[in-house]
Amino acid sequence: MTHLDITRRSFIVTTAAAGGGLMIGVAMSGPAHAAAGMKPNPWERPSDKAGQEINAWIVVDPDGTTTIRVGQSEMGQGVFTAMPMLVAEELHVDWKMVKVEYADGNRHVRNNNLYQRMSTGGSGAVRNSRVFLQQAGASARERLREAAAQAWSVPRDQVVAKDSVLTAGNRRGTFAEFATRASQVQLAQEPAIKQSGQFQLLGTTLARLDTPLKVNGTATFGADVKLPGMVHAAVKVVPVRGGKLKSFNFDAIKGRPGVIGAYALKPVDTHPLQTRVDEGVAVVADTYYRALTALNLLPIEWDLGPDVAQTTTAYKAKMAEALKQPGAVGRNDGDTIAAMKTAAKVVEATYYTGYDGHACMEPLNCTVHIAADRVDVWGGFQNPPGALAVVADHLGRQPVDVYTHTTFLGGGFGLRARNHEVRQAAEIARQVGNRPVKMMWTREEDTRHVRGRPAGMSYLRMGLDASGMPIAFYGRYAGHSAAAQNNPTSVANGLDLGSMNGIRDHRYKIAHNLMEGHIRNTNLHTQAYRAPGYEHNLWHFEQFIDEVALAGGKDPLQLRIDLTKDLPDWQMVLNTLKQKSGYRRDLPRGEGMGVAIGESFGSIIGMVAKVTVSRRGQLTIDKFDVVVDCGNLVTPAIVAHQMQSCVVWGVTDAVYRELTIDKGAIVEGNFDTYPLMKINQMPVVETHFALTGGNKWGGIGEPGCPPAAAALGNAVFAATGKRVRDRLINQTDLRWA
Q1: What number of other Cβ atoms are within 10 A of residue 214's Cβ?
Q2: Which pLDDT band, with edges at 50, 70 and 90, does 562 fall under?
Q3: CA geometry: angle 211, 655, 663, nearest 5 deg
Q4: In this structure, are 502 and 468 located in the same domain?
Q5: Does residue 408 contact residue 221 with C-beta atoms inside 8 Å?
Q6: Domain interval for residue 293
Q7: Would you place residue 520 in the very low, low, confident or very high pLDDT band (cuts 50, 70, 90)?
Q8: Cα(first)–Cα(last) distance of the chain, in Å?
């Protein structure tokens, strides 16, 4: 870290007054907290860093270190760098002196949602937090300038803030020197924040602040939490959702070393389904190994319930049958039925995607310590205030008495947004008593009892005119609805619009559109998945657009350009994609390029995949060219990282993995049967930008996932002539002559 020069007198003056620090942000109240910096435990705040506080986001210490608090959870997407950059852009702080810590979930709740937004998901970190974070930095900067102006008896507009230093003529002082005085300044009006085209720090590539801790292994994830007196819980829930625990024989394991107890887990019907405890058993011991070993030896008798006969085959047949009937109308433009009758050619296809789980590298876990006056909860939460609320609800405590300690997350993707594992951990801790209890799932529990991505099937039909251009689109969708399962009253007339995202809301200029939907659920529980709806539906729709193009004698990329002429941002992405990828259809047999594009979470992402398929059907994914329009950039490197991640996600789902049901239960359990893409299977990914700028700030973590699988599917067809409509690609015979 770089330290600013500061005179001995200035240091004494600064530190002597009220702690010598400035904390500033937006609409804050409450007691002082200390700065922590980037620590392996990002919730820790050492007491020797206490400073005077007037707001919540920014801490300036006597040595010049500036700590910026982050309300979002770091699960690999880069918020521990991007969010501080938004503040630092306005603050004019020396970036080399910036450190980061998590915002406090308890303080957020105690002070009326102080940090404004602490739920991480929906690719909303930057786009939903940017304005108030920039405002926090701008407000702090102006208070520092005003403090210096008053001390030097000059107008504020003569004071310049740059790289943590304030100057006016030959006068000079550090942020640290004026921090205490600035904390007492009240501005008559909050300053305006910078807009697109005015940024100096945003848009540049900076080293991520969390990387060193993750490289050297000191970053603390939920699985790493260690507390004095902590005990460990291993859990096993009924294999078939909807089944029940009949009995277990604790006597068979109670004499084993370290075993403390075995506890029944029972759901409470009044709890929300999304967080409800599943029927099961927890074994608690002094180490996790002993708890898990004893659990595996524990005789358990299950009542598997009425859904034991469900299978993937039967479920697919159920969806296929639904597609034969009209459904609830989700979109109706023009007169599709009449227009379809005038079509010179009709193209139709049926696509399917199965259930999928998040498969985070870090299985679900949570640590809970119940004391007389407070409850402490440690874990990788996508929604710390939500975790706090779940624990308070379950234990009958006041929310202000529950304290969350957010760790780094070993993957989230929506899985850690609902906090169902937190309620389970709270229940185990309630039964164990006054000692910290760390609950962790095995990989098998994490895979088989995950609340994952819904399955879905689409029947798609397009009418073409004599020139091969689309004039009418008709689609039917049948699939699992998390909304209908979690809250049936939220789905009116059997219509779940979100389940049809990526098809229903397509942006192509087609005069007539009719989209219908059916809800067909199983006993499995589902919830948010990376780019929900879009991730699997764009696999259906963007491959179908290729089928439409080829049936009409059109180039697939050019057809997309022709169908979006009234959308300048789409035009820019598609034309950039055409230029950067060198997209072509005249490659030798066994080689292919495929295109796909989608818009979600405020961003447009276009992709071209390049593949090689041997005569024996061996698939090699060579390259992805990705073009991004998210409007504005915080840092290009993080966007590129996320596009690589999205390619991994989309390709893994399309090629390698699917959760299947047999006898009412998920079959796959570990990475041998539910594999992820390996490093030697990773293609080259080049990210290009076609930014519209202005006031557009799109998300990044999710929008790149949906087009990845579809571009790959189209490339496989171009190489082999074989259309994969029923994932998975690696279960398809790709041999060609």
Answers
A1: 15
A2: very high
A3: 105
A4: yes
A5: yes
A6: 222-305+364-440
A7: very high
A8: 62
Instruction: Single out the residue of 625, 641, 624 nearest to residue 700, CA to CA.
Output: 641
Cα–Cα–Cα angle for 482, 484, 486, rounded to 5 degrees: 65
351 and 228 in one domain? no
* pLDDT of res. 24: 46
- Whole-angstrom CA distances from 540 to 27, 456, 617 are 46, 10, 23
Provide the domain count of the chain.
3
> What CA–CA distances, in Å, run from 679 to 140, 217, 409, 640, 644?
45, 20, 21, 17, 12
Q: For the chain, state the CA radius of gyration.
A: 28
Report yes or no on whether pTM surpasses 0.90: yes
**pLDDT tens profile 632-683:** 999 999 999 999 999 999 999 999 999 999 999 999 999 999 999 999 999 9
User: Which of 396, 414, 440 marks a domain boundary?
Assistant: 440
Residue with tokens 């091969």: 468
Q: For residue 493, what pLDDT is reported?
A: 86
Q: Are 253 and 283 in contact (CB under 8 A)?
A: yes
pLDDT average, residue stretch 600-621: 98
299 in the same domain as 152: no
For residue 580, what are its two tokens?
């950067």
Q: What CATH number does the domain containing 560 carry?
A: 3.30.365.10
- Domain boundary pick from 414, 440, 466: 440
Going along 114-180, which residue ranges are E strands? 160-162, 165-168, 171-174
Distance of alpha carbon 142 from the chain centroid: 34
503 and 436 both lie in a single domain: no
CA distances from 499 to 236, 455, 540, 590, 655 (A): 30, 10, 13, 35, 22
Dist CA 141 CA 60 (whole Å): 12
Segment (H or E) for 239 = none
Q: 538 lies in a domain?
A: yes
Task: Encode pLDDT of 116-166 as tens digits.
Answer: 999 999 999 999 999 999 999 999 999 999 999 999 999 999 999 999 999
pLDDT per residue as tens digits for the range 93-116:
999 999 998 999 999 999 999 999
On whether the CB atoms of residues 611 and 589 are closer than 8 A, the answer is no
Is 93 in the same domain as 46? Answer: yes
- Is residue 188 helix, strand or coil? coil
Which residue matches tokens 């190489």?
Answer: 719
Q: Which pLDDT band, with edges at 50, 70 and 90, does 44 fall under?
A: low
Residue for token pair 């009425």: 306
DSSP string, 372-415: SS-EEEEE--S-HHHHHHHHHHHHT--GGGEEEEE-B-S--TTG
Collapse the DSSP code of 701 into the 3-class scheme (helix H, G, I; strand E, B; otherwise coil) and give the result: coil
**Is 478 domain-assigned?**
yes
155 DSSP assignment: -
Q: Any residues with CB less than 8 A from the CB of 696 and at least 6 apart, and which?
A: 602, 629, 630, 631, 632
- Between strands 160-162 and 165-168, the pairing is antiparallel
User: Which amino acid type is present at position 249?
Assistant: N
- In this structure, the answer to whether residues 425 and 471 fall within a common structural domain is no
Rounded to whole angstroms, how far apart are CA atoms 176 and 172? Answer: 12
Token pair 């005003």 is found at 146
Which pLDDT belongs to residue 244?
98
- Report the distance separating Cα 64 and Cα 5, nearest Å: 9
204 falls within a domain: no
Is residue 446 situated within a structural domain?
Answer: no
Q: How many residues belong to the chain?
A: 737
For residues 493 and 525, membership in a common domain is answered with yes
Map tokens 């020396």 to a residue.
94
Kindly indicate the confidence band of residue 489, based on its pLDDT and cuts at 50, 70 and 90.
confident
One-letter-per-residue 3-state SS of 416-436: HHCCHHHHHHHHHHHHHCCCC
Do 611 and 626 lie in a common domain?
A: yes
